[in-house]
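Q: Can I borrow your eye for a moment on a structure tokenisation matter? Would you mind producing a protein record, from residues through to fold? Write it directly below this note and I will take it from there.
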Amino acid sequence: MTAPTSSSAPSSTDLKGGFAQVLLATVASTMGFWAWMAISPLQQTYATNMGLDEGQISLMLATPVLVGALGRIVIGAMTDRFGGRKMFTAVLLLSAPAVLLVALAGSINSFPLLLVSGFYLGVAGTIFAAGVPFSSAWFPPERRGFANGVFGMGMIGTAVSAMATPRLAQGIGYLPTHLLIAGLLVAMAALVWFLMRESPVWQPSRDRLIPKVIGALKLPVTWEMSFLYGIVFGGFVAFSTFLPKYLTTIYPEVDVLGAGARTALFAAAAVIARPIGGVLADRFGPKVVTLVSLGGIVTLAYVVGQQPPEGVLTGAVFILMAAAMGLGMGGVFAWIGPSTPKDKVGSVSGVVAAAGGLGGYFPPLVMGATYHPETNSYSLGLWLLVLVGAFALVVAGMLKDVGRK
């Protein structure tokens, strides 16, 4: 693994107010994640109104994830150059029209337009890549696991979307719901522009975008962390996107609102576990935390594949799986900072974040392709998760730890 780059740690005086800035970034990320996942909670409505089959549903759910993943490479590198304040504002403002386009597609029941708008909606998912270098710059190296863990809690936006979107659509209507989300994005962009400020130790990178990304790709740590993050965060994104569909298919007694509530609990468990993973990584080293995470994912994915009866046991298994993924997210990103030259943290984080998003793109497509209607089972897709997770466990065990803090 790439050796850590030595740099003098900034004093606590230099970084006064950093926690408040990271919290503001977390709230902004929450809004971005809500918008990014706006299609998934209403997938049954789209499927019914547009007459979609299993493959079309999977493609609809996966499209925003793909763009949100690949776009993170660009946003991460641009954050190194322009700073978090400008990039957060830009992503939030660009996401609002995407939400309105989704609203138009759903209102006229156009599946092609829904795919196009879902593609555009992926912009909202790139917001994560702006927050990692921004948050890291506000804390000394030994506390960056904590900083990124707190910022990572912004993925609670997936829980907000799963819980609030279908209820708002049922309560105030489909179109007003999307108008509300778009309005909140614009309001959040204004708050970021006027209240967010860069860390006093942050310095803009003048490197060109493409060479900067290529430079990140030349680092072994980029590929190592990309693979691991593709499992832990990719699994989270995949389940957050596909879980409403999975639950209503495997357990017909679960309705749309019930599936949304369960998905929200799944997301909340991962959100709570993520900063814990960062703190534990700061204390015991990220390798230990990542190994525990992957071991939990493999074990619990196997249990899910057995399709236990709907009830407390099934709910507990999904919540524990989400917690294992959250620990891994905190562990992997705590691994990046000490192992990466500081002028490449943004670009490396962007590539790794993109890999995490890509890890969430393929599973819904695989689940749709491997579904057996005769047995009403997604077991083959879940077995693939078990096998890939087991391989990741071996890879993580072979990597060099950056040491305990």
